[in-house]
Structure formats: structure tokens, C-alpha cells
Amino acid sequence: MTIDQAALGSAVKAVVAAAHADDPAALYRAVMPPAGTDTPPAEVTTWFGSLLIHLALTAATASRLERGCPREAVSGWIGEVLGPLPTPALLRAADPDRIDHVEAVSSAADYSRCHEYTVDLIRVGLTEPDQAPDERGIEAHCAVTNDKKARITVIAMLGRLAVVADGRG
Q1: What's the whole-number mean pLDDT along residues 103-109?
Q2: Cβ burial 96-135 (10 Å sphere, 16+ → b, else e)
Q3: What pTM, to 2 d.p., does this model score?
Q4: Within 10 A of 85 (CB to CB), how many other CB atoms are there?
């Protein structure tokens, strides 16, 4: 499958706009491949993989972090922009009648994992041109591409961290 670069660029802009507007419905529309639900599974994987890389590169550029900076610097920047990782207590407090302790612990762990994937994907964009990407970035890309729940969370996180070329974000 050859990715339509114009469609990919439009998708990146739409994801960034939807993430900044905190609009889940627009986010789900933005991530859809150009052919929608008619897209063959192999092409869907390629589409999401390409979208993740483009969003990570856009977020890396927006970060203004130095190439080759440590994971801690990237994680710190993400924390500054998105806020601290949610704790089970915070999640449970948001809706104590609906969210039990086990679900809160699981959700906090899932979000933490997505945070780590986001760090590793952004670090791919901060790799020096003469260096190979960190294996964790490659593993994160594969994991997120193949996990629907993690994929939409990481895409939303990258979208909120990114600023598109025209300065909107």
C-alpha cells in the first residue's frame, strides 16, 4: 500500500485539532484511513503505523527538545504539557459509583503504559540522523499499532503534544 501523503497530512492536522478540542468523535473520524471501513486489514495497519510516526515526528518538533536527549527529558516535557499521570485514587474519585478500585488500578496502568509508548515514539523523532532508533521506540510502534485501545490513547496524546505547521494545535 502506498500512503497518500496529502491524506496523511490532513489526518495529522485533524488529529491535532480533535485532540486539542478534546473531541473524541472527531478524533475517531480523523484517524480513519481514507477508504474508511473498506480498507483491507493490512492497509489499515500500514495507515496507523504511518500516522503514528508522523504524529510522533510532529510532536518531537513541537517539543523543542534536543536530539538525543534522555527519556527523562521527554517524559518530563510530556508531563508539563499533559499534566501528571493519573493515579488510581484520582480516577476512582472522578466517578466512585462507576469506577471500582480494580478498574482504577488497571486504567492507571494502561495510561502509564501509553505514556511510556508516547515517550519512546517521540524519541524516535529526536534520534540523531546517524543513529539507529532506540529499540524501545520500535517496540512501542509495533505494540501501539497492534493494540486498538493503546493506539487511540497514544494518538490522542501525540495529537495534544503536536502543533501543526501553521502554528495551530
Answers
A1: 93
A2: eeeeeeeebeeebeebebbbbbbbbbbbbbbeeeeeeeee
A3: 0.88
A4: 15
